[in-house]
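Per reviewer request, we include the raw input and output of the structure prediction for the construct analysed in the revised manuscript.
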Amino acid sequence: MRAAVWRACRSHPAQRVPLIALLALTAVFAALGLRLIYVGAADLGIVGLFSTDEKLAGQLIRTMVRDDNLGLSHFFSYGPIDLYAARALLLPYGLFRPVSDEAIVVALRLVSLASGIGCLFVTYILGRRIWDVWSAAIGTAIVLASATFLAWSTTAHPDMQQLLWLLLGLWVATSLAGRSSTHQAGTTTLAAIGAVYAGLAFATKYAGELLLPMLWVSVAPANSLGRSAPGLALSARSTGAGHRSDYRGLSCRLLRG
């Protein structure tokens, strides 16, 4: 994905302007996020005063570190992928220093921050695929400037990681929907990648199941799509009496029933 964006920028210098500006804003976002993830992270008791979810996630990882396994010591409302990602970050850290409450909270928040930054890039790529470079940059900048987005990107919670997997699944869906019926090479592999993203989203916070019907609609043959499906409105030009869909004229409108 990233290579395709850079190739387009080299061939069209004017397209560099929004991308460079967006990269600069993302760098500022990342720098601010790296400062915020340390706020109130010194003790899980303090963390629990502001977020019970953060405290619970921290306690689960503390048990993993103490028992040296990946088992969950008690019920957790969400999937464990977010916890396992933070635990993986703590493995090299634990080789040199004791794993403190602060290290646990910061690792959890760092996963959210990395996921948030990933969401920005995928949002840009999706916008560029569906509309154009400037629309993609403006849309991504609006997301980046949201205080709510920054808050969740610096909170130990699985929402941002789930959103990243969902956006990646949508990218796969638009890639599949944009393929011509005569150019199906790699469709199975791409659909499998989309299914992996759906599974990861489901294992993070149970919303990945929403991607599966969308992927099915995207990969279905043109003559079996019928009318617009909920969540992915597909419109294509008719190409003769047989009303076969021409995917080259396909336009996708996401998340509209």
